[in-house]
Each structure stands twice: as C-alpha cells, then as structure tokens.
Design brief:
The protein is an alpha+beta fold. 39% of the residues lie in helices and 12% in strands.
Length: 119
C-alpha cells in the first residue's frame, strides 16, 4: 500500500496515524517532492474510478490562477486536467491510498482509510 501525502496536511497526518495504529505496512510518497507523472496520475485515476476534476483542489491559488473551475469536465478535456495536476501537484486532493488489491481511495476520512485497510 502506498499513501500520497503532503506532510503539512492534517488529513494526511490523521491517515498516517490511523495506518500506524492499525499496524499497516505502507510506503509514503510526498507527492509535492516526488511529483507523479501524467501516466501515474492516469493510473491512480483508473484505480480510484474517478476523473481528474474529481481529485482537483479547486480552491487552491494555483487552481484559481488557471481558472480550472471554468474548464470543461468532459472526456476531451481530461488530458488538460491531468497535465495541470502533474505540473502543479498541489492541486491533487490528498491523501490518496493505493491499496494492495489494485484499487485506491481518497482517504480524507477515517472511514476511507479503514476501507483501504480492508482491501
């Protein structure tokens, strides 16, 4: 299992504490330093069953600069969204846990973390 985190994020720290409390084996990826490629983002989206706009932090300053709220949310715009996430990883919702069964979850709640642990 791997968890994408921003150490400054309280939701990420909470997820890590829960994983530790449960004795889970996991790898930490500080995705702001170890930025995912567009292909890695596509893979995680497939595992999540989500679209790039579903994991974009639209309230971030960078999102406002880019005007992402106005971008079309359709298949033809998917690559544009993915490119933005790869170029500005701060826009990626966090934490994201990739589970051992090949799925993934956006682990912003205790329930989501426990869901990943059960996979």
């Amino acid at each position: 299992m791997e968890i994408w985190i921003n150490p400054a994020c309280s939701k990420c720290r909470s997820a890590l504490h829960l994983l530790d409390d449960e004795g889970a084996s996991y790898t930490v990826r500080r995705y702001l330093e170890d930025v995912p490629t567009q292909d890695e983002i596509r893979e995680v989206l497939g595992r999540l069953g989500l679209e790039p706009w579903d994991i974009t932090r639209t309230q971030e300053a960078a999102a406002k600069e880019l005007g992402v709220k106005e971008w079309p949310r359709e298949a033809g715009s998917r690559d544009r969204w993915i490119a933005a996430l790869a170029e500005r990883p701060k826009l990626i919702q966090r934490p994201i846990i990739t589970a051992d069964d090949g799925t993934a979850v956006v682990a912003r709640t205790e329930e989501a973390v426990r869901d990943a642990l059960g996979r």
